[in-house]
């Protein structure tokens, strides 16, 4: 009686192991859906799919926010597809800022490796949590909450942000309000700003209407 049971268990283990899929490297030739990219044929997967070298150089901070965010999400780093994680490099020149924004699809963990960063987030109860971080400090931002980063010193600051999703998503509040075609009258009503202020911000951030 024991032998059939042992044999059945052995066959079950073999079948389960055969069904395990170690990874799902993103097939960037196909569309991306809510669940990520479809899987690349394992026969075409190489070690290059699991290595990202885009952080060797600093991002270009010559822009309106004096900052650069260099992502290594599934679209840039196919090996993280389906693994529930990703990473990005943040460069903040003196005076640099990553404006108030949210990642609807992931929590974020920020590690400062150079300089000083003033950062924080706002809870859904409108409680504010702000801290000045220096090299070696880490802060976490819960999923979906508004947060920001500002250079807190006189030299370039560098940090790495890890996310609990290969595609955390991003919405910057300033651009959501003033960088699109939403009519100015509606923006004024919903922000309590006057027409001149709204038009000025739309001109700066590329909006219209």
Question: Key features?
Answer:
alpha+beta; 209 residues; 5-stranded antiparallel sheet; Jelly Rolls; single chain; 4 helices; globular; 21% helix
Give a brief description:
With 209 residues, the chain is α+β, with helices and mostly antiparallel strands. The protein contains four helices and twelve strands; from the N terminus they run αββββββββββββααα. The strands form three sheets. It has a five-stranded antiparallel beta sheet, with no helix packed on it. Strands 8-7-10-5-12 form a five-stranded antiparallel beta sheet. A two-stranded antiparallel sheet has the order 1-2.
What does this protein structure show overall?
The chain is α+β, with helices and mostly antiparallel strands and 209 residues long. Among the domains are: 65-169, Jelly Rolls; 176-205, no CATH class. Helix content is 21%, strand content 30%. The protein contains four helices and twelve strands; from the N terminus they run αββββββββββββααα. The protein has helices at residues 2-19, 173-178, 184-191, 195-205, and strands spanning 32-33, 36-37, 67-72, 86-92, 97-102, 108-114, 116-122, 128-134, 138-141, 146-151, 157-163, 171-172. The strands form three sheets. Strands 3-4-11-6-9 form a five-stranded antiparallel beta sheet, with no helix packed on it. A five-stranded antiparallel beta sheet has the order 8-7-10-5-12. The mean pLDDT is 92.
Order of helices and strands: HEEEEEEEEEEEEHHH
Task: Using the coordinates shown, work out and report the CATH topology of the domain at 65-169.
Answer: Jelly Rolls
Average pLDDT for all residues: 92
- The counted number of beta strands is 12
Distance between the termini: 79 Å
Specify the CATH homologous superfamily of the domain at 65-169.
Answer: Jelly Rolls
Structure annotation, total helices: 4
- What's the CATH architecture of the domain at 65-169? Sandwich
The major β-sheet equals: 5 strands, antiparallel
Uncertain regions spanning at least 5 consecutive residues = none
- Estimated helix fraction: 10-25%
Overall structural class, as computed from helix and strand content, comes to: alpha+beta
Strand order of the largest sheet: 3-4-11-6-9
Strand content: 25-35%
Identify the CATH class of the domain at 65-169.
Answer: Mainly Beta
Shape: globular
Query: For the CA atoms, what is the radius of gyration?
Result: 22 Å
